[in-house]
Amino acid sequence: MKTGPRSGLPAVHRILDLPAIEALAAAHGRTAVVDAVRRALDQARQRIDGESAVPATDLIVSAVARHLSDTLRPSPRPVYNLTGTILHTNLGRATLPEEAIAAMIAVARAPADLEYDLAEGARGERDHHVLDDLRHLTGAEAACIVNNNAAAVMLTLNTLARGKDVPVSRGELIEIGGSFRIPDIMARAGAKLREVGTTNRTHLRDFAEAIGPRAGLVMKVHTSNYTIEGFTAAADERALAALCRERGVPFAIDLGSGTLVDLARYGLPHEPTPAEAIAAGADLVTFSGDKLLGGPQAGIIVGRAALIARLNRNPMKRALRVDKLTLAALSAVLKLYRDPDRLAERLPTLCLLARSRVDIDPVAATIAGPLRDRLGDRARIRLVDCASQIGSGALPSRTLPSRGLALEPTAARREAGRALARLASDLRALAIPVIGRIESGALILDCRTLFEAEGFVANLAGLATLP
Predict the structure, then answer these.
(1) Which of 301, 318, 337, 459 has its CA 20 to 30 A from that of 439?
(2) 8-33: string of b/e by CB count within 10 Å (b at 16+)?
(3) DSSP 8-state code for residue 140
(4) pTM, whole model, 2 decimals?
(5) How many domains does one find in the chain?
């Protein structure tokens, strides 16, 4: 018979007979609870081997409950984005308006006319759910929807320029997040990149010399995530469109973020819109749904009906298409643009972009006191001016004045870095994780994206139970 510290651990069936465990089994199912009990006992054995004492039964029960909570909790999880980046790629980019959320719930609960023409009683096209709105908002003849803008660019290249040359200005060979590069996408799509001009200056004559019999498409890429200033030149879009028509080659513009309204209306620098690109003569325009547009993740292609029809016939389109939830959300968001006078009130992305520092300051002041109470002497907390950025490659040289809190650890200098990392970690461990940014020896919580201070303060109660 084995003796030793491990022998003090209760058997699995003894733990399963405890009332607290039986309650967990009723809530989560016996299989999940048995797995969690075995895991908790295995971890306890490992700690005993490390000369820890046999844990009390209530600690084993707590470990089981924690494991079930972590394992069965839906994921991804909502977080408080206080990084100062509004359209944060890692945090899901645009927050959807209530109209889009309601539309998604409605079609999630029941079958929907995703690819069914109710008038004809026959199969339909899923992209038609947003076609009228995109025509109205961009002036294009037709539209095609895929799962993101990278897919939109790849589908366009693969359909129109597979095995053919694609002239692009050297100054527009961009790289965006995740090491996504235009040259790499062209290669994967089967197109052959032909660089024209120089990094800072590209002229119409450069394109004219590059458009030969092997040209399949001319592409212009909006450098949304960086700027080139100084001695620069770029080919005029109208002139380039005319040149492409003359040579019989399609002209595509990749706008990246793609706003549907003039941002100057909200005190921001102007960003080119799909409507402007179509008016300038572009045959196809690609842009994102979850950036400045403020909708779900999607890649949107608008342009000439004949070219859109070719994209839809490409077998790759089926692999890149979106589902009914995305289309429902996108449709609801596009309909908000039909009422431009109230758009900034109803579309969270524009609301956040247009928010003034005067509106943000009371929110920062409201949460400062509760944070001091919870953190005690762990950190000094100051109200500070800060600068928000739009994110996701939009207006990279423009920041927005904001207000927030600077949390500075009170630990000795040699321990300050570790204390700062622990502080950030503890906030991320809350029921609704709080994510800020570390800057100049402090954790900055930018309050531009925080509206409801009461819920944030209630969430801080979890700091009291953190080890």
Answers:
(1) 459
(2) ebbeeeebbebeebeebbeebeeebb
(3) -
(4) 0.90
(5) 3
User: Which residue has tokens 């879009």?
Assistant: 237
Q: How confident is the model at residue 394 (pLDDT cuts 50, 70, 90)?
A: low
What is the model's pLDDT at position 340? 92
Exposed e or buried b per residue across 341-362, where buried means at least 16 C-beta atoms within 10 angstroms of its C-beta: eebbebbbbbbbbbbebeebbe
- Angle, vertex CA 131, rays to CA 129 and CA 132, nearest 5: 100
226 vs 261, residue with greater confidence: 261
Q: Is residue 436 domain-shared with residue 461, that is, in the same domain?
A: yes
Residues 336 and 376 in one domain: no
Residue 226 has pLDDT above 90, yes or no: no
pLDDT band at 161 (very low <50, low <70, confident <90, very high): very high
What phi, psi does 208 have (nearest 5°)? Answer: -60, -40
Q: Do residues 327 and 360 both lie within one domain? A: no
Contact assessment for residue 321 and residue 126, using Cβ atoms and an 8 Å cutoff: yes
Per-residue model confidence as pLDDT tens digits over 31-65? 999 999 999 998 888 887 655 667 788 888 999 99
Question: Can you tell me the distance from the alpha carbon of 289 to that of 145, in angstroms, rounded to the nearest whole number?
Answer: 9
| 301/172: higher pLDDT | 301
Which own/partner pairs from 15-20 qualify as long-range (CB within 8 Å, at least 24 positions apart)? 15/40, 15/41, 15/57, 15/60, 15/61, 15/64, 18/57, 18/61, 20/61, 20/65
Specify if 347 maps to a domain. Answer: no
Whether residues 334 and 419 fall in one domain:
no
- Alpha-carbon distance of 93 to 392, in angstroms, equals 7
Gap between the Cα atoms of 313 and 317, Å rounded:
7
408, 423 contact by CB (below 8 A): no
Per-residue pLDDT at 58: 86
Record the tokens describing residue 171, joined without a space.
Answer: 């100054």
